[in-house]
Amino acid sequence: MNKKQRAFTPTPKKRRRIGQKSTFNRMLVRVFRIVVTVFLLLVAWIVYIQWKVQIAPDQTLPKQVDVGIVLGASLRQDIPSPGLQERLDLAVDLYKEGRFKQLIVSGGLDHNGSKLTEAEGMRNYLVKKGLPAKSILLEPRATSTYENLLYSKQIMDEQGLVSSIIMTHQFHGSRSLDIAETIGLKQPLISSTKSEVLFMPYHEARETLAYTKWYWTKLLLIAGI
After folding, report:
1. What is the Cα–Cα distance from 131 to 98, expressed in whole angstroms?
2. Which residues cross the membrane (predicted)?
């Protein structure tokens, strides 16, 4: 081996450095691919959920069902917030159309200084709108949509009520229907209203997180955990 060949022949130490550098580069490529894959999956998931959020269930309501269920939202100084009033106004309209003779209003105590539960505030609002108090059943424990529907179903079972119309906002309709079907409500129906008072970018983004949490809960329920 001449001097020129020896100059270009790596020593064992250099070979180890080259090998380490090559291994490190391969690891970087793998990490990059994993990060890109996770990012693309996350984007795809968000797009899918937002599609679900934007497409409200399109269901034809029957002339009459056993009960209407109004899903709760926050009170402000014991009065339904403007968003909740939209749901309640929808309930008033359907009640006056004769779609149901009984209502379940569902919602527990807010942690915002309210002294009434959401259910109590909703009942008071509906009575002021002309609905008879005896037609309104209270579900005052729920703190989530899942609990809204689960506890409302318990009341339905106790009262011998089977068919129902669930009232909420459009962005909330798909998840509500999925939950209702999962807990065993018989052929649940959704009647939804488009909001004129809520800041929709916030609520739609929040619904993405809530929908993701629900899917995880649903998997645990299916697994029996």
Report:
1. 12
2. 31-51
- Token pair in block for residue 137: 């059943």
* Paired tokens of 197: 């008072």
Residue 211 CB coordination number (10 Å): 20
Distance between alpha carbon 176 and the CA centroid of its chain, in Å?
7
* 36 vs 30: CA distance, rounded Å: 10
Q: What is the CA radius of gyration of the chain?
A: 27
Tens of pLDDT, residue by residue over 114-152, are 899 999 999 999 999 999 999 999 999 999 999 999 999
The residue assigned the tokens 């934007």 is 54
Give pTM, 2 decimals.
0.84
Neighbouring C-beta atoms of residue 162, cutoff 10 Å: 13
Neighbours of 165 (CB within 10 A): 24
Locus of tokens 């029996």: 224
Beta bridge partners of 70: 105, 167
